[in-house]
Amino acid sequence: MIKGDNILSEGTSSKKTVFVLNGPNLNLLGMREPEIYGSDTLDDIAGRLEDQAHDLNLEVDIRQSNHEGHLVDWLQEAAADNAQAVILNAGALTHTSIALHDVIKAIDVPVIEVHLSNPAAREEFRHKSLIAPVAKGTICGFGALGYQLALDAISKF
To answer: Where would I find the beta strands (DSSP E) of the chain?
Structure first.
């Protein structure tokens, strides 16, 4: 289940948690430019991640917001909760958010930046990521599979 702007974390577990944070317009996946972003919805991606996390003995806490401040708060929460890692698809905020850059730099939780498309192969304004310099790594251009590749990498930390 994807948690939205106003939903809090549920319960606790002995499994390590991976936060999966999705930024602006990712709630429109499946409808928005499927030739670029694919036909999978965020719920489709979430279901596969939950199954994969179970197999890897991890938990995923999947959230989406169209608001930059919520992403900042959730990154801080990931650090406070001692999360294993964060998978972050910041959407267009990738190219504009100094606030996301700063919070990732400030926390001691590895962040993997994920993009469905390859920003370097798109419009010029998408070529620079403010997240990449402070992320542990970036996975882009593999569609929804990028989330699963990130979770697999995290399982090896």
So the answer is: 2-3, 16-22, 58-64, 85-89, 111-115, 137-140
